[in-house]
Structure to design on (305 residues):
């Protein structure tokens, strides 16, 4: 039986971190499988705004047009940094599961203040819908995921509807009224942006994102996932360390309680002692096992190949 790709990766990384020695020879099967099973279409422009080309990379199942569930991955970086290329390792577990994967970049603070990043990620989801037949994206089984600011944007992307007012764009003459996703996997994402602007939980990255926007507190509420909790949302899985120094763990708890009260299927996986990412090998393997179980529960994960 083939050893799962992400297990091989984390074994290698853990070995290097623990010993400082060169990595052992990689198993021969998984890189070959990856090459045979996927085609990469890099730097597809899905929107142009403020003279900035918003791009995404497509990791498409072979042969072209193979219908399969799709993961939309959104990188983190506090809305002020990060790149889609820097998040490539985060895609590997989903490629190993057999998903199509879309790796999204968006306007950071140096290009545009909020809600630009939210609008961009909604447009990326729109692009997935528009190109579903070309690549075989199963729009009934779309998962949005990301970490930190990417977790925030994954929540916003999956929780919003056309009525929230983020979907209008000069690139499109209309909106798709029901761009639904099947599930959201939120890695320690921000759920209350306003809390990070002032007070004991103030964070410099959040202050930088909002800058000197007029009525920034109102904008912060508008771009906070907690604002959009309601019945009928897709299932949400949140993974968060209870010693996170950049995104308060209490934000994950508040989201979990609000979703539960609204009747939305959701789970909160607490990483004991976990900070802002940087979890141990065992914690990561456990988290991905939970993700697989969660996606199986809702019939989202691709059938075994």
């Amino acid at each position: 039986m083939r050893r799962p790709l992400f297990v091989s990766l984390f074994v290698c990384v853990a070995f290097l971190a623990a010993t400082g020695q060169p990595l052992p020879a990689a198993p021969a099967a998984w890189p070959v499988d990856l090459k045979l099973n996927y085609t990469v279409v890099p730097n597809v422009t899905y929107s142009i705004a403020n003279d900035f080309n918003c791009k995404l990379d497509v990791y498409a199942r072979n042969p072209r047009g193979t219908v399969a569930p799709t993961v939309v991955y959104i990188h983190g970086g506090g809305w002020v940094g990060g790149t889609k290329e820097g998040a490539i390792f985060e895609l590997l577990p989903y490629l190993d599961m057999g998903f199509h994967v879309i790796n999204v970049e968006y306007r950071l603070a140096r290009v545009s203040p909020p809600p630009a990043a939210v609008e961009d990620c909604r447009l990326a989801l729109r692009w997935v819908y528009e190109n579903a037949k070309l690549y075989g994206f199963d729009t009934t089984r779309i998962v949005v995921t990301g970490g930190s600011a990417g977790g925030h944007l994954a929540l916003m992307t999956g929780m919003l509807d056309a009525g929230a007012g983020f979907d209008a764009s000069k690139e499109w003459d209309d909106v798709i009224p029901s761009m639904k996703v099947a599930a959201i996997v939120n890695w320690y994402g921000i759920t209350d942006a306003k809390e990070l602007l002032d007070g004991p939980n103030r964070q410099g990255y959040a202050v930088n994102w909002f800058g000197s926007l007029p009525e920034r507190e109102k904008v912060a509420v508008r771009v906070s996932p907690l604002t959009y909790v309601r019945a009928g949302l897709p299932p949400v899985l949140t993974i968060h360390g209870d010693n996170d120094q950049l995104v308060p763990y209490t934000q994950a708890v508040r989201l979990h309680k609000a979703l539960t009260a609204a009747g939305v299927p959701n789970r909160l996986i607490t990483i004991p002692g976990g900070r802002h990412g940087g979890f141990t090998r065992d914690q990561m393997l456990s988290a991905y096992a939970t993700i697989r179980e969660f996606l199986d529960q809702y019939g989202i994960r691709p059938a075994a190949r």
